[in-house]
Amino acid sequence: MNADSVNYLKGIRDPLRPRIRMTSFCNRQCNYCFAQDFLSEDTSDREISIDNLTYILNRLTEDGIPMVGWQGGEPLLHSRIDEIIALHKQYGVKVMLFTNALVPPDIIQSLDGVVEQVLINCNEPLTYSAEEWTLLNQNISSFISLKGTGKVALGINVYDSSMDTDYIIDLSVKHGIKEVRIDMTRPAPSNTNDFIKFSGINQIFALIKQTIMKLERKGISTPHLDCPFPLCTLSEEDKRFVQKYIHDDFKFGACRTGVDITTNANLSSCFCSVPISDTGLRKYKNIWHAWLSLEHLENKIRWERHTKESCKTCRYHTQQICQGGCLGYKIDAGEHVDFAGIKHSQNDLPDHYLEALASAYKYFYKSNYVDCYLVLKRLLTQYEHERVLWLMAVVCVYLNYDAYDYFVKFIAASKAPLISAYEAGSVLWSAGLLNLSQTVMEYGLNLATAKDSGYQRLLYALIKVVKESKKYDEINKYFRMLITEFKEAVV
Asked: 359-490 in CATH: which number?
């Protein structure tokens, strides 16, 4: 198969889409906002400078990263937004916009050619003035006119079990919205915002579930959950529900590390994660290096800290499926980490190893697959890191090399083989390598039992691949396994 016909990005989402915090101020004062700590920081510039943004866009282009998120505060209130739009057009870096949409209407049309996707956070109608509510609706319509209903989503944060969430349904129906993001409010590290306490997650989840079901009944085709839930708070039925509706495939019990770049070009991760100080983007070889370093740090928080004592022996935690809820539940008020602390967290994995892996990611996303392969080959003689095995398997697909052994090693090295088998099978399926996709997913299936998380999803994926391969005689085998799995779950 020609390597150019393989579409890796169809098989699995980008592992990295940095978010730029354009402003540290907002025209809303939401009590639940988990960005409150950042918005109140004295050390943050009020808005990103043109010099800092130019530096960031240059790094993105050099590193083969084609898209970023704009966050705030409210990013569209930046005093030099016209220059920022022109700069993005110059560098060709597209934008996923996070906004409350309470901005001057003329700004929206100027975003054409830069903003690709829009997520509009919507609060209860009574929290807006009449003028604000009119502006919100007007601007939702304007964003849809600009991008179409398939590229504009609405978002809602549930902060109380008595909250009436029907307004998001009414707004979605009114504007013909197809996608709605729904989540419960999460803790800022300082715990000063209004968030759902760990003990209240089960109750709030019932409202979230009810809202999603209402959205579907009203014809909204893509309602989805965003961040993970601690699985011990959910019934078996609700675990399946989360797995079905979570935005990020199997990551229904754990989140992925992102890279946030603040107004003064410092690094951060999610607003709810551990605050980071004295760590500028300029201290890293490239953005991939910064991301891998932050991921290594956050994985220590995910898997070595325990939200509850029972997490230590919970199979969902030991298999690295459930991290015990939002990382914000594990961060102590006042806790932070600096550049030296990040480096210290890497004492079990040398920084030069992460630097080399970062260069491999850069080669891959710049379509330099041969150099990517050579770097990974050297790294695998030192240590078989899970990410190295994964990227090696994928780049072998692009180069038409034998990738099976690397996929198998990647799945075998994973704490959650079904999740890894599904991700690997998805990439191979999107590349049209149906037989290899089936073989890889079957390998993962053979490592698990029907009680393992993701078993059902993997069977559904296998059925699709076998059906597309026209191996109709094999479909019944997987259907029988599905029926057995369902019966065990009911019992």
From this structure: 1.25.40.10
